[in-house]
């Protein structure tokens, strides 16, 4: 499979990160001091080129769903193609379904680029860049989106990282702040904004919701380590996804809520021709806290 989707590696004393630029610019796995930080991609999923089963993939030029694959912008109506089986919506943009070009690669850093020309997946030209960099115990992910179209264009960015649950060893807890949770209707589109639920261990949670007014900071305590997440100003929302019975969850920093192109607030960023939207996410690892260690014992 490596001949089809070659893997590139970043390494340091603390980290080992493998990436597949040609498979949606995705992260295949990320280990810190011998432990999985992200849900690793299985050999079977890699061989089948299942990018949605990778450890992390980019969300660009939008996150989550565009309702029924239609939207209006600046007086024009647009229809996108649907890209998930059995879904009437267009989901997660185009970046995760495209090959990214390698611009530079060293032991601790990788830079990727994607150029998009208008098509049925997205009607505006853009260039996206990703950079992954190890800085001590921190893995830094940056992304930019530049509007190459002659028109102004809506723009969104984010990441879809999956994290493992290790329930047999102890619970995993997420601590963060957000103002509201968007509740979805039967069509899986937001229909109501409510107060966020009380926090509980992710191992006992079943959820798939977008949260607005995110503080852009979070901590995740798990049996093997603590993850401190901090994000840049553009990432105003976050999606928390934990499917029932699965040993993983996703915590997705994103720049806008689900279906923002059809009026869900806050609205997407709008870029004038030639303008750029930037985002950054930092994952800083440390040993589990004493309180967490006592909880796991």
UniProtKB/TrEMBL annotation:
Pfam families assigned: Aldose_epim (PF01263)
CDD domains to which the protein is assigned, alphabetical: Aldose_epim_Ec_YphB
Domain of life of the organism encoding this protein: Bacteria
GO MF, one annotated term: isomerase activity
Database matches in InterPro entries: Aldose_1/G6P_1-epimerase (IPR008183), Gal_mutarotase_sf_dom (IPR011013), GH-type_carb-bd (IPR014718)
Gene3D superfamilies on file: 2.70.98.10
Naturally occurring in which organism (per UniProt): Paraburkholderia antibiotica
Protein name: Aldose 1-epimerase
């Amino acid at each position: 499979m490596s001949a089809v989707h070659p893997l590139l590696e970043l390494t340091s004393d603390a980290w080992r990160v493998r990436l597949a630029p040609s498979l949606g610019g995705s992260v295949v796995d990320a280990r810190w001091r011998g432990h999985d930080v992200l849900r690793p991609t299985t050999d079977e999923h890699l061989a089948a080129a299942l990018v949605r089963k990778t450890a992390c993939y980019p969300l660009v030029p939008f996150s989550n769903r565009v309702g029924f694959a239609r939207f209006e912008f600046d007086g024009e109506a647009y229809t996108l193609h649907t890209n998930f089986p059995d879904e009437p919506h267009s989901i997660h943009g185009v970046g995760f379904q495209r090959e990214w070009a390698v611009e530079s690669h060293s032991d601790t850093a990788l830079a990727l680029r994607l150029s998009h020309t208008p098509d049925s997946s997205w009607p505006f030209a853009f260039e996206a860049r990703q950079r992954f960099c190890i800085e001590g115990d921190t893995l830094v992910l940056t992304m930019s989106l530049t509007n190459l179209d002659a028109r102004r264009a809506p723009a969104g960015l984010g990441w879809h990282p999956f994290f493992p649950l290790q329930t047999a060893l102890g619970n995993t807890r997420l601590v963060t702040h957000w103002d509201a949770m968007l509740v979805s209707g039967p069509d899986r589109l937001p229909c109501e904004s409510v107060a966020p639920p009380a926090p509980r261990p992710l191992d006992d949670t079943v959820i798939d919701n977008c949260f607005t007014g995110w503080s852009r900071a979070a901590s995740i305590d798990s049996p093997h380590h603590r993850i401190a997440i901090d994000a840049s100003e553009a990432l105003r929302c976050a999606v928390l996804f934990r499917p029932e019975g699965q040993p993983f969850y996703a915590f997705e920093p994103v720049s806008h809520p689900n279906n923002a192109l059809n009026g869900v607030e806050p609205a997407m960023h709008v870029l004038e021709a030639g303008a750029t939207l930037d985002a950054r996410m930092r994952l800083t690892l440390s040993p589990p806290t004493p309180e967490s260690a006592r909880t796991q014992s």
